[in-house]
Automatic annotation (TrEMBL):
Gene3D superfamilies given in the database record: NAD(P)-binding Rossmann-like Domain (3.40.50.720), UDP-galactose 4-epimerase, domain 1 (3.90.25.10)
Record organism: candidate division LCP-89 bacterium B3_LCP
EC number: 1.1.1.271
Function (record text): Catalyzes the two-step NADP-dependent conversion of GDP-4-dehydro-6-deoxy-D-mannose to GDP-fucose, involving an epimerase and a reductase reaction.
GO molecular function annotations of the record: GDP-L-fucose synthase activity; isomerase activity; NADP+ binding
Protein name, as recorded: GDP-L-fucose synthase
GO BP annotation list: 'de novo' GDP-L-fucose biosynthetic process
Catalyzed reaction equations: GDP-beta-L-fucose + NADP(+) = GDP-4-dehydro-alpha-D-rhamnose + NADPH + H(+)
Site feature location: Important for catalytic activity: T109, C111
Record-listed substrate binding positions: K189, W204, R211, D271
Keyword NADP: yes
Length: 317
């Protein structure tokens, strides 16, 4: 019998990018899922979080809600990103403690890692140096959730875990120009260029940075597996362990979308961290699992979805 049958789970951010895929998998496995919406529960307020958990009486809370985005939104909204994620994380965890929730799963980010280390980032590296300037406001707030779980375990025997997600892409991502991460941004630019017969597409930076890209449906599967199996306060990386340069990514998206024009590399736009790849040995051992979707297949699925849902996708912030 499935672990999830009749389990009650609150997924914050369950209507968002990663969260909605997590909700789908939980429901397929027989869980009863409750997604708090902002109009009913403002998770920036401790009392709203507590009311939500006392009403829904979940066995587990997966905290996926966040205000985040790609390299550009971190430059134009750094304060909002900092404040909202810090306060929301602190209050959601405190509300879980007050409501006596059995298990808390915090969804974190690879931006929490030191920004200037060499090699793939292992869980033990989390405190080995300063964060990259482009994401320190976001990365630190997420890292504080892990610190809070650690402190609450010591004092209250709180059962909290922290998952560190790499760069994601897929259906239901933000395709908004200001907010999007690189994959969604490129998909929108190249698809629009083919629809409008444009001769040139602008891409940012030098193309040299290297990122790891995980298909969101694989990521959601990893989160659900970890929520079932992993009960340690120390973090767990979720990724592919495979690096791809931005230049290679651009060529792939260009090829799949069928754009035949020129590229303009705008080097006035930032590169960000030069290399960001996770070491996924612990993930593979703990979850006994590897992400099944390779980058080309994931991009093909995403581009197909984007073409079929362009209007709705463009309207999401
Ligand atoms: P990061 O992983 O936090 O740095 O965030 P992004 O996913 O936004 O950016 C990753 C890399 O892609 C950076 O080096 C960007 O300069 C590069 N990039 C190239 N073209 C674009 C684009 O059109 N939009 C975005 N967001 N990034 C781009």
């Amino acid at each position: 019998m499935s672990f999830w049958r009749d389990k009650r789970v609150v997924v914050t951010g369950g209507a968002g990018f990663v969260g909605s895929h997590v909700v789908d998998i939980l429901k397929q496995n027989g869980a009863e899922v409750f997604v708090p919406r902002k109009r009913d529960f403002d998770l920036m307020k401790l009392e709203d979080g507590l009311r939500c958990f006392l009403d829904a009486k979940p066995d587990m809370v997966i905290h996926g809600a966040a205000y985040y985005g790609g390299i550009w939104i971190n430059q134009v909204h750094p304060g909002k990103i900092y404040y909202e994620n810090l306060i929301m994380g602190a209050n959601v965890i405190e509300a879980c403690r007050l409501a006596g929730i059995e298990k808390f799963v915090g969804v974190g980010t690879a931006c929490s890692y030191p920004g200037y280390l060499e090699g793939n980032l292992s869980e033990e590296n989390l405190w080995d140096g300063p964060l990259h300037d482009s994401v320190r406001n976001y990365g630190l707030t997420k890292k504080m959730m892990q610190v809070q779980c650690w402190a609450y375990k010591k004092q209250y025997d709180f059962n909290g875990t922290h998952l560190i997600l790499t760069n994601l892409y897929g259906p239901l991502d933000s395709y908004n120009e200001q907010r999007s991460h690189v994959v969604a941004a490129l998909i929108r630019k190249f698809v629009e260029a083919t629809l409008e017969d444009k001769l040139e597409v602008e891409v940012w930076g030098t193309g040299k940075p290297v990122r790891e890209f995980l298909f969101v449906e694989d990521c959601a599967e990893a989160i659900v597996r970890a929520a079932e199996i992993y009960n340690d306060v120390e973090p767990l990386n979720i990724g592919t362990g495979i690096g791809t340069s931005i230049r290679e990514l651009v060529e792939l998206v260009q090829d799949i979308s069928g754009f035949r024009g020129e590229l303009h590399w705008n080097t006035d736009k930032p590169d960000g961290q030069m290399v960001k790849i996770l070491n996924v040995n612990k993930m593979q051992g703990t979850l006994n699992w590897k992400p099944p979707t390779d980058l080309r297949t994931g991009l093909e699925k995403t581009i197909k979805w984007y073409r079929e849902n362009k209007q709705e996708a463009d309207a999401r912030f």
